[in-house]
Write a structure and sequence with these properties.
It is built from 6 helices and no strands. The protein has helices at residues 16-25, 29-33, 35-41, 66-79, 88-97, 112-119. 41% of the residues lie in helices and 0% in strands. The longest helix is centred in the middle third of the chain and has 14 residues, at 66-79. The protein is an all-alpha fold and 132 residues long. It has 2 domains: 1-57 and 109-132, no CATH class; 65-107, no CATH class. The mean pLDDT is 90.
Length: 132
């Protein structure tokens, strides 16, 4: 999947049947925690990648740790009162005006949780897999 949205803003859509199939058949711990790789690696599933017009994959707009929280808190405190339904464009304009804000969480590797899961991956035993 080509990553073009800020980390945390990617969209993945699949049917419940696909999710159930992945849950039932995934044998690696990483594929149970992060189901999309199981689905994208399996050619029997159809999947489409939605790409952003502008590549913003170097941005991090997710909440996984305290640095992410601080970044998001500043965004909300700065934009919410003016427009509770602020857009991606408004975030980009704000960051453009105050580029130091992006430095708060810029050193965190994209998809760090998934990469950690891959490093610690293990084959699941039958009794680890539960029916849905």
């Amino acid at each position: 999947m080509k990553e073009t949205y800020p980390d945390g803003q990617d969209v993945e859509i699949f049917t419940f049947g696909s999710l159930k199939n992945a849950w039932k058949n995934a044998k690696l711990a990483s594929e149970r925690e992060h189901v999309t790789p199981y689905i994208t690696k399996n050619p029997s599933f159809k999947h489409v990648n939605l790409e952003c017009r502008k590549d913003m994959s170097n941005k991090r707009w997710t909440l996984d740790n305290s640095e992410d929280y601080k970044f998001i808190q500043i965004i909300f405190e700065s934009l919410y009162d003016k427009n509770p339904l602020f857009s991606m464009e408004e975030i980009l304009n704000f960051i453009h005006e105050k580029p130091e804000i992006e430095r708060i969480n810029q050193d965190i590797v994209r998809n760090e949780g998934y990469k950690k899961s891959l490093r610690e991956d293990r084959l699941l035993k039958l009794n680890d897999i539960q029916e849905v």
